[in-house]
Automatic annotation (TrEMBL):
<dbReference type="InterPro" id="IPR009539">
    <property type="entry name" value="VANGL"/>
</dbReference>
<feature type="compositionally biased region" description="Basic and acidic residues">
    <location>
        <begin position="36"/>
        <end position="45"/>
    </location>
</feature>
<keyword id="KW-0812">Transmembrane</keyword>
<keyword id="KW-1003">Cell membrane</keyword>
<feature type="compositionally biased region" description="Basic residues">
    <location>
        <begin position="19"/>
        <end position="35"/>
    </location>
</feature>
<dbReference type="Pfam" id="PF06638">
    <property type="entry name" value="Strabismus"/>
</dbReference>
<feature type="transmembrane region" description="Helical">
    <location>
        <begin position="153"/>
        <end position="172"/>
    </location>
</feature>
<keyword id="KW-0472">Membrane</keyword>
<feature type="transmembrane region" description="Helical">
    <location>
        <begin position="184"/>
        <end position="204"/>
    </location>
</feature>
<keyword id="KW-1133">Transmembrane helix</keyword>
<comment type="similarity">
    <text>Belongs to the Vang family.</text>
</comment>
<protein>
    <submittedName>
        <fullName>VANG1 protein</fullName>
    </submittedName>
</protein>
<feature type="compositionally biased region" description="Polar residues">
    <location>
        <begin position="74"/>
        <end position="86"/>
    </location>
</feature>
<feature type="transmembrane region" description="Helical">
    <location>
        <begin position="111"/>
        <end position="133"/>
    </location>
</feature>
<feature type="region of interest" description="Disordered">
    <location>
        <begin position="1"/>
        <end position="86"/>
    </location>
</feature>
<dbReference type="GO" id="GO:0005886">
    <property type="term" value="C:plasma membrane"/>
</dbReference>
<feature type="transmembrane region" description="Helical">
    <location>
        <begin position="224"/>
        <end position="244"/>
    </location>
</feature>
Length: 525
C-alpha cells in the first residue's frame, strides 16, 4: 500500500510540476544554458509524455525538435497527463474511405472463393454417399442381395471419406495470410479438375445406373468406392503441387529497401511472382529492422543546410533568367565539395559521442532502478503483506527514475515514435515478472529490432502494391525484377537462379600418407 501511494504521489508530482515551477526552471536554464545553443528559443522547449489510455507516442510529432538542439533540453519540465489530443485532415479522411472501399472489395473476393470451394467440397463428400443411397431409395425391392461384401465396402468408404475429410481440412481450409491480386493457378486447376471428375462420375451414374435401374448393388457400391479412391489420389496430387513442389530451393532473391538500402537474401523454390512476393513480405517483417524515416531526414536537412548557405548575386542585371542562378549555385556547391566531407565527419562523430554518453546514462539509471525490486519468497509474503506489489505496480514505481534517461536516449537515436509509455511499462512489467536482468530489459531499446517487435500501429502497412513487368501468375525466372511498394518505401526484389553445381570425386589412398624427416646440419633436431 505504501509503495502504491508513493507511486501515485510521484505521478501527481509529475503532473503538477509544470504549473508551479516551469517559469523558474526556464529562468535558471537561461542563466546556465550551454554554449552549444544558438538562440534562446531553442533552449525553452519542453517535452510532454502522455499517459494511457490513449497510448500516445513518447515523442509526439508536435514536440519533435531538430537535431541541432543542445544536450540540456531534457532538463526542462516533464509532465505526465491523462488526456491526449488527436487531429485529422481531409487527406486522412480520403485515405480512410479508400481503405474501407478496398477492404470491402477484398473481403467479397475472399468470401466468394471460399464459398465456391466449400460448395464443391460438400458436393464431393456427398456424391459417394448419394451413389450408395439412391438405389436403396428408388428401387430397393429389385436389388440383388449383397451380403458381407457390401458391408465391408461400406466400412472402407466410411474410413476413406474420413481420411479425405481430415486431409482436405488440413490442406485447403486454413486461415489465409494475405490477399493476392490474382488467383492461385494450381489451386484453381485442382478445383476445375475435381469438378470435371465429379461431373463425369455423375453423368455415367445417371446414364448407366439411374436410367437402366441396375440391380447389381455390389457393382454400384464398388463404383462409389472407385470414386473415393480417385479423390484420394487427387488429394495426393494437390499435396505435391501446393506443398512439396516449392520446398526445393531453385532461386536466390535479393531484397533491397529503397530508402536506406538495407538488403537480405532468401532462397525460394518454384513459386509464382505473387506467392514469392508474399514470402518476401513475411520475411521482411521478421528480418528487416523497422523503417525509421527520422534517420533519413538528417541527411536531407544537412544537404539543405549546405545549399542554404550559398548566396547568388546577379551582376548582369534583372534581365538574366533563373537558369544562370541555378548553374551558379551548382558550381558553388561543387567548389565546396572538398570541405563538406569534413563537416559530415564531425557531425557524425559528435552524434556518436552523444549516443554513447546517453547510452551510459541510461544503463546506469536502469541498473539502479532494478536494484530496488526484490522478488518475495512464499514465506516472506506472509510476513509483510502490506508492502507487496504486483509486477505492474512495481514497474510504475521504478519507471520515473529511468524515464528521463530513456526518453533522451530514444530521442537521440530517433526511436521515440516507436515506443509509447504504455508499451515501455508493459515491457518493464514483463521483465520484472520473469525475473529478467536490466540488460535484458534494455535490449529492445539499445539495438533496433525487427519490425514485428513493435506495435502494429507504428509500422503495419495494410496495402502493398506488386509492380512487375511479367504476369504475377507466372513462375520465377532468372533475372526477373519486381517491386513491392507501400506508402513510405518500396522493396526491390531481384531474382537469380541457383547455378548448376558439378561435383567430382577424387580418391586418396590412406596408405599414401607417408613422410620422411629431412635433417640438415644447421637444424636443432
Amino acid at each position: 500500500m505504501s509503495a502504491a501511494m508513493d507511486t501515485e504521489s510521484t505521478y501527481s508530482g509529475y503532473s503538477h510540476y509544470s504549473g508551479h515551477s516551469k517559469k523558474a526552471h526556464r529562468q535558471g536554464r537561461d542563466r546556465h544554458k550551454s554554449p552549444r545553443s544558438k538562440d534562446g528559443s531553442r533552449s525553452e522547449k519542453s517535452v510532454t509524455i502522455q499517459a494511457p489510455p490513449a497510448e500516445p507516442l513518447l515523442g509526439n510529432d508536435a514536440s519533435r525538435v531538430e537535431e541541432g538542439q543542445d544536450d540540456n533540453w531534457g532538463e526542462t519540465t516533464t509532465a505526465i497527463t491523462g488526456t491526449s489530443e488527436h487531429s485529422i485532415s481531409q487527406e486522412d479522411i480520403a485515405r480512410i474511405s479508400k481503405d474501407l472501399e478496398d477492404s470491402v472489395g477484398l473481403d467479397c473476393k475472399r468470401y466468394l472463393g471460399l464459398t465456391v470451394a466449400a460448395v464443391l467440397g460438400l458436393l464431393v463428400f456427398l456424391t459417394p454417399i448419394a451413389f450408395i443411397l439412391l438405389p436403396q431409395i428408388l428401387w430397393r425391392d429389385d436389388l440383388e442381395p449383397c451380403g458381407t461384401v457390401c458391408e465391408g465396402l461400406f466400412i472402407s468408404v466410411a474410413f476413406k471419406l474420413l481420411i479425405l475429410l481430415i486431409g482436405t481440412w488440413a490442406l485447403f481450409f486454413r486461415q489465409p495470410k494475405a490477399d493476392i491480386p490474382r488467383v492461385f493457378v494450381f489451386r484453381a486447376l485442382l478445383l476445375v479438375l475435381i469438378f470435371l471428375f465429379v461431373f463425369s462420375y455423375w453423368l455415367f451414374y445417371g446414364v448407366r445406373i439411374l436410367d437402366l435401374k441396375d440391380t447389381n448393388y455390389q457393382g454400384i457400391v464398388q463404383y462409389a468406392v472407385s470414386l473415393v479412391d480417385a479423390l484420394l489420389f487427387i488429394h495426393y496430387l494437390a499435396i505435391v503441387l501446393l506443398e512439396l513442389r516449392q520446398l526445393q530451393p531453385m532461386f536466390t532473391v535479393k531484397v533491397v529497401r529503397s530508402t536506406d538500402g538495407e538488403s537480405r537474401y532468401y532462397s525460394l523454390g518454384h513459386l509464382s511472382i505473387q506467392r514469392a512476393a508474399l514470402v518476401v513480405l513475411e520475411n521482411y517483417y521478421k528480418d528487416f529492422t523497422v523503417y525509421n524515416p527520422a534517420v533519413l531526414t538528417a541527411s536531407k536537412s544537412r544537404a539543405a543546410k549546405h545549399m542554404a548557405g550559398l548566396k547568388v548575386y546577379n551582376v548582369d542585371g534583372p534581365g538574366n533568367n533563373a537558369s544562370g542562378q541555378s548553374r551558379a549555385m551548382i558550381a558553388a556547391a561543387a567548389r565546396r565539395r572538398d570541405s563538406s566531407h569534413n563537416e559530415l565527419y564531425y557531425e557524425e562523430a559528435d552524434h556518436e559521442r552523444r549516443v554513447r554518453k546517453r547510452r551510459a546514462r541510461l544503463v546506469v539509471a536502469v541498473e539502479e532502478a532494478f536494484t530496488h525490486i526484490k522478488r518475495l519468497q512464499a514465506e516472506e509474503q506472509q510476513k509483510a503483506p502490506g508492502e507487496m506489489m504486483d509486477p505492474r505496480e512495481a514497474a510504475q514505481a521504478i519507471f520515473p527514475s529511468m524515464a528521463r534517461a530513456l526518453q533522451k536516449y530514444l530521442r537521440t537515436t530517433r526511436q521515440q515514435q516507436y515506443h509509447s509509455m504504455e508499451s515501455i511499462l508493459q515491457h518493464l512489467s514483463f521483465c520484472i515478472t520473469n525475473n529478467m536482468t536490466p540488460k535484458a530489459f534494455l535490449e529492445r531499446y539499445l539495438n533496433p529490432g525487427p519490425t514485428l517487435q513493435y506495435d502494429r500501429d507504428r509500422w503495419f502497412s495494410k496495402q502493398w502494391t506488386l509492380i512487375s513487368e511479367e504476369a504475377v501468375t507466372s513462375g520465377l525466372q532468372d533475372g526477373i525484377v519486381f517491386v513491392l511498394k507501400c506508402l513510405d518505401f518500396s522493396l526491390v526484389v531481384n531474382v537469380k537462379k541457383i547455378p548448376f553445381i558439378k561435383l567430382s570425386e577424387e580418391f586418396i589412398d590412406p596408405k599414401s600418407h607417408k613422410f620422411v624427416l629431412r635433417l640438415q646440419s644447421e637444424t636443432s633436431v
